[in-house]
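Anyone have tokens for histidine kinase? Sequence:
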Amino acid sequence: MTGPENAMAARQEYRWVLPSVLLGDGVEGRPVKRSTRDWIVDTLMFLFASGLTLLTVPDLSSVPAPLQVTEQVIGALACASVWLRRRWPVTLALAMALLSTSLILVGGAAAVASFTVAVHRPFKISGLVLLVNVLTLFPYAYLRPSPDLSYWGTFTLGAAISLAVFAWGVVVRARRQLVWSLRAQADSAAEQAKRLERERIAREMHDVLAHRLSMLSLHAGALEFRPDARPDDVARAAGAIRESAHQALQDLRGVIGVLRHAGGDEEVPDRPQPTLADVQTLAEESRRAGMDLTLTLPELGEVPEALGRNAYRIVQEALTNARKHAGGAPVTVTVSGGRSKGLTVEVRNPVGVRLGPRIPGAGAGLIGLTERAELAGGRLDHGPRINGDFVVKAWLPWTT
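Reply: yep, here.
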């Protein structure tokens, strides 16, 4: 792949992988870099786990005194382990689930760990962790039955709490994924708009500057191959070169001005665009450069602005190609059509006729013309014909 294609692929991969990384779908045990918000959330989670632990301290009255100290130490360590929930969420949740089979004071840390897994892991993992938590309720209800509830009452209450915590985590995860999805779509739409704007400006630069520079090359080539030309002819050619260079600089300033304007938030204005009536001026300019050009441009009435602009660009690029590849050959330009038929533009020149050096080109002119015609809803055909002519023929719909 080329450099731009690699960059775009990397941006697309980043756009879709980034939500998963931030949601914690990475590798277990990866390094954690907490933001300010993460520190606040983790502190609140630690306080939440500690608060739940303190609420369950009275339940230790039914536990023998030697085991109460063990419960308190493990409960404190369990609350402290909440700070590891981002790096080892699944491991922490499973450890808390196993400890909760017989210990009372790990319930707060177990709830936070279960919630973390539901938020940071897909259902195929978080669902299994939930199942482990529910299964641990069977021995817990047997070993630590509530004085006010039966065995099944204790199990049902614990299962309801586990399901509520899990559901809360799933809702948070779904909301985060929705937000990231909307952001990704917005970024994609912005990138698409920028790409289309760059392509529009690139087409504008190619259409304008390729024409101007080919005219410069044509006049310069005439001076090179006619060193014995009369002073009047040399002066006329030099004047044409100066005028073409001046016009090319003006066009370049206009395009650069649009690029500079594109940095603002306001809408980027279009440069003044040519119309179908300007084809006559284009033909006269080509004739002054020495091109043998025949133009058939009937009176078509009021032509839509976009249609006239596309027709002008097709003629301009076709004449530029004729100067590049068949300099000195006669060129025929025919424009015909109407409201009901659409507009047909045909540019024809003999193949294999070229006077003077060949002007280099990028080879993208006809491709750009085809894209322009298709974007306008029309079609373009180009290539050599049996009679030895090279023809560029486009049809464009006449839409108001």
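The chain has two domains: 3-188, 275-400.
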